[in-house]
Design goal:
Blueprint: H1 3-12, H2 21-36
InterPro entries: SAP_dom_sf (IPR036361), T4_recomb_endonuclease_dimer (IPR015208)
Protein name: T4 recombination endonuclease VII dimerisation domain-containing protein
Domain T4 recombination endonuclease VII dimerisation: 2-27
Length: 39
């Protein structure tokens, strides 16, 4: 899952990005995964 897709999913659930460390960690992990995959 791309970071953009995650953010769109959060939008559908009406969850602000900046209120949860867990979501921030998940976004960072996805970004790292993209980097590791060479995307």
């Amino acid at each position: 899952m791309k970071v953009v897709e995650l953010k769109e999913e959060l939008d559908r659930r009406e969850i602000p990005y900046n209120t949860s460390d867990l979501k921030s960690d998940l976004i960072l992990k996805l970004e790292e995964d993209d980097l590791n995959a060479g995307v």
